[in-house]
UniProtKB/TrEMBL annotation:
Subunit (UniProt): Homotetramer.
Protein name per its UniProtKB record: ATP-dependent 6-phosphofructokinase
Physiological role: Catalyzes the phosphorylation of D-fructose 6-phosphate to fructose 1,6-bisphosphate by ATP, the first committing step of glycolysis.
Reaction(s) this enzyme catalyzes, per UniProt: beta-D-fructose 6-phosphate + ATP = beta-D-fructose 1,6-bisphosphate + ADP + H(+)
Organism for this UniProt entry: Sphingobacterium kitahiroshimense
Pathway per the UniProt entry: Carbohydrate degradation; glycolysis; D-glyceraldehyde 3-phosphate and glycerone phosphate from D-glucose: step 3/4
Cofactor dependency: Mg(2+)
EC number: 2.7.1.11
UniProt domain Phosphofructokinase: residue ranges: 6-281
Superkingdom of the source species: Bacteria
Amino acid sequence: MVNIKRIGVFTSGGDAPGMNACIRAVVRTALYEKLSVTGIYQGYQGMLDGNFTEMTSRSVSNIIQLGGTILKTARCLEFKTKEGRAKAYENVKAAGIDALVAIGGDGTFTGADFFSKEYDIPVICIPGTIDNDLYGSDFTLGYDTATNTVIEAIDKIRDTAASHERLFFIEVMGRDSGCIALNAGIAGGAEAILLPEKETAIDELIAHLSAADGRGKKSSSIVIVAEGDQNGGAYNVAKKVKEKFDYYDTKVSILGHLQRGGSPSSFDRVLASRLGFAAVKELLKGNNRMTVGVRGNEVVTTPLEEAINNKEYKLSSDMLELVQVLAI
Ligand code: ADP
């Protein structure tokens, strides 16, 4: 077991609201436990460049409410090579870092797994991505905030949809996961929700929309399309609907990167704080290559390999049914 004196913390992959709150929790828990902390800028790129900073309690003042990540993030191809990781290790060793906390997604977890196995350096990973598509936690950092951002956008678009009697197709993030689409769609009162996990036939969607119209619903029709929907995103869905059903005045709105930003919700701040705290505690217990997450309301650990190699289906059937029932 490594006698840990200094922890390195970094964020990597796509940024997500709550990452700063998590960095704060890692730094302050470690300092409380009399450990030193090095902040690694730009994820694995920073390890390769030796782009490090000493973290004090004051370095994380006033960041709990900030979106993005003060440690920056980057995609680093060189870290995928053995030579790249060797260079990273030289810098990590020279800085006296003897354990790591990595905050990021699937790719970040994979990199951490390789690095920890090759150099016997303990690592704990924290799931940070708005997509909520990681195994080992009911929720990932940033997902709740992103969903709330989408709801705000839906509410605003609904004003114009209702005023002009337009049909809006709103595309939200989620290449493999329909979590944002399903939850924001239900919370935003969408007419229909198209998800990567479930094929929706355009004819069925048209039948659904025209039946809704028969019930006098034309004035407020919102269809949520996850970017990974099997029809190819909101533009394609709108085009296919228009080709067969030229009744509506259709518009498309792609929400894009605005979903990644913003001040984290209370849920994400608390989750980030709990997981940052837990990650340091796990390292101190002598644990290695684990992720920390929440199940129910409990903090849990999952072996990193298990988290990387498994997909978790997070859509519940009652919610899929809800969409149909509440749209009548
Ligand atoms: P995310 O962590 O959000 O899934 P990426 O997939 O971009 O984002 O991964 C973040 C970084 O993790 C990559 O830029 C790369 O440096 C590292 N990484 C990803 N996959 C691997 C891999 N197979 N081996 C080593 N490092 C990897």
